[in-house]
Design goal:
It is a single-pass membrane protein. With 212 residues, this protein is an alpha+beta fold. 35% of the residues lie in helices and 22% in strands. Strands 1, 2, 3, 4, 5, 6 and 7 form a seven-stranded mixed sheet that branches. Strand 2 and strand 3 form a beta hairpin.
Amino acid sequence: MLFRHIIGTMLLLALFAVVGTGLVALTHAGTQERIAANEREALLKSIHALIPPSSHDNDIFTDTVAVIDPLLGNDEPHTAYRARSGAQAVAVVLTPIAPDGYNGTIKLLVAINHDSTLAGVRILSHRETPGLGDGIEVERSDWVLGFNSRSLSDPAIKQWGVKKDGGAFDQFTGATITPRAVVNAVKQSLLYFRDHRDTLFALPQQETTDNG
């Protein structure tokens, strides 16, 4: 009887363990799905703030291509979101990084119109100092809006820097490294677009192109 009781208890504990593990796995999977959905929604909202839905008729979130080029900050794939209206190319949203932020990597969205002017820039993530470097966020200041409609000829390439370095863009009081990194990343993105505009729009969806 004692042996049967022990076996029964062990089986019951094993059953509880299996059920518990299953519930944890289901909860984790559900949480991950919600996180992914929230991230997708936030990303799409940011993209639409730069490229209004009324300006294109394709699904910009699925009309993408992965590109690899050091001009985008590293040698890893970066997603490019393409906006089209019928057969007409409208704009591309690049996802470069600035590897030289004050506290590490800064991830950006850089939207470039087909005519090579900037539709706008947004910061996706960063670890810059609150109250100083976080002025790159559009929620914190209008600094990032200063890129709107700019291009490699406005200002001239030599002036694509912060004013402390002889450039055309403001830095923050007490924080020069962060805006310097962002300005450079935006300039590099414009250079990449200048050299690969036609290829970006011609590539099939989700194809990876290495221009390094």
